[in-house]
Amino acid sequence: MSDNNLCAVLLAAGEGKRMRSNKPKVLCEVLLKPMLGWVMDSAKDAGIGDICVVTGHMEEQVKAYLGGSAETVTQSERLGTGHAVMMAKEFLEKHRGGDVLVACGDAPFLDTKTISKALRQHLSRGDAVTVISASLEDPTGYGRIIRGADGALERIVEQKDANAEEWDVKEVNSGAYWFNIDALLEVLDPDIIGKSEITGEYYLTNTPAALLARGYRAGAYEARTPDVVLGANDPKQLYNLGKLARQSIIMKHIENGVSIPCTGSIIISPDVEIGPYAQVLPGSVITGKTVIGSDCKIGPHSVIENSVIGSGSVINASQVKNATVEENSVVGPFEVIGK
Known about the structure:
Layout: E1 6-12, E2 29-30, E3 33-34, H1 35-45, E4 50-55, H2 59-66, E5 71-74, H3 81-86, H4 89-93, E6 99-104, H5 112-125, E7 129-135, E8 144-147, E9 153-157, H6 164-167, E10 171-180, H7 181-187, H8 190-193, H9 207-213, E11 218-222, H10 235-255, E12 267-268, E13 273-274, E14 279-280, E15 285-287, E16 291-292, E17 297-298, E18 303-305, E19 308-309, E20 314-315, E21 319-321, E22 324-325, E23 330-331, E24 336-338
Parallel strand pairs: 1-4, 1-6, 4-5, 7-11, 12-15, 13-16, 14-17, 15-18, 16-19, 17-20, 18-21, 19-22, 20-23, 21-24
Antiparallel strand pairs: 2-3, 6-10, 7-10, 8-9
């Protein structure tokens, strides 16, 4: 159920030149699902009903993927994360009195639980901004979270600006934030955020300091898993995200009573549901919004996409796409059902 006081602004304007892809970076896929889709679903599952996506590079592809499921605004010039959120000012004005999640559209492991727990802390403390952070053994390349003696957020320090003590801090900025919208709109101004003399860009990381200077409170919520900071800037990093996601999803199903005797050649997309006592055999690919009932046998070498498989069914070396298979059915070998 969505909360009318909650909304999200997702940053999806980046080009991602190093991805070497014919699609925008946020539509590059982790386990056959665009990274933007991962973030949007996590936000929706956290109760966020109204979402604005800031588009830019290849924006028509992004809009086509969204299919009207979110508002869009265009960042014609890519002038930093702060500038991107400025493009969503009109959207934010409509949601005064509420709170907004600002997150990158290419951070697929920003999960619902982290979003919800960060919001709970944000509201209970009455902070104007809550940065979602994580602790990394190797924080190289990330902005450091600097806390005061009371544990509240003092500032975010970019690595290039960090002194020796700050350099050793393990807690880093994930790039996701909860903001009180009225407070954010007070500082969402080029003259307040300030332009980087080096890059000419406006950074959202400057907003906590601007809010603190106006007497607001700022906090940081440390996620329980460091994976929330992970994104991909090139095909190798995207591949590594896929490996992490695949293993995590397979283990989730195993823990729920699904038998997967050989995990190495199986792909299960994140939105798939599988009932207990089911068995998934090698070479099987299960994607989309597929629902598989209990005590099914899938595979070997079966492909199931956006389908419902009734309990007790066998899908042997066959393809089932956009179809419903009744309970206790036997499909295959070598059958094709649906389109």
